[in-house]
Design brief:
It is a single chain. The protein has 6 helices and no strands. The chain is mostly helical.
Length: 111
């Protein structure tokens, strides 16, 4: 909201504040967004840390970003491998028969 000025005045400090609060609360996409912002602000080390945390919590976009950064030589092979293993573990932890049935039903409706 603060980034786009939707219902509030655009305010970068407020945007970062709320992203940080959400990330601390476990919101993986907020953590991913912080990583992207840090990268755009010229702080690749901080960006990678945020992206690794988000990927370890199961955030797919963060894992994709880490793969791209690995290809660019910014992320080490060890960091990428660790994030990939933790991402897979996080995804496995969220699997259940109920979720799989819901996903199948959703996919059938989309067809």
């Amino acid at each position: 909201m603060h980034r786009e000025g939707l219902g509030v005045e655009k305010n970068k400090k407020e945007e970062v504040y709320h992203l940080e609060k959400a990330a601390i609360g476990g919101h993986t996409f907020a953590r991913h967004n912080l990583g992207i912002m840090e990268g755009k602000n010229g702080r690749p080390d901080r960006a990678v840390k945020h992206l690794i945390i988000a990927a370890k919590l199961g955030q797919d976009k963060s894992l994709s970003s880490l793969r791209r950064l690995y290809a660019e030589g910014i992320v080490s092979k060890e960091d990428l491998a660790g994030a990939l293993r933790a991402h897979q573990d996080a995804v496995e932890e969220t699997k259940s028969q109920q979720r799989e049935a819901a996903e199948a039903a959703r996919t059938d409706r989309v067809k």
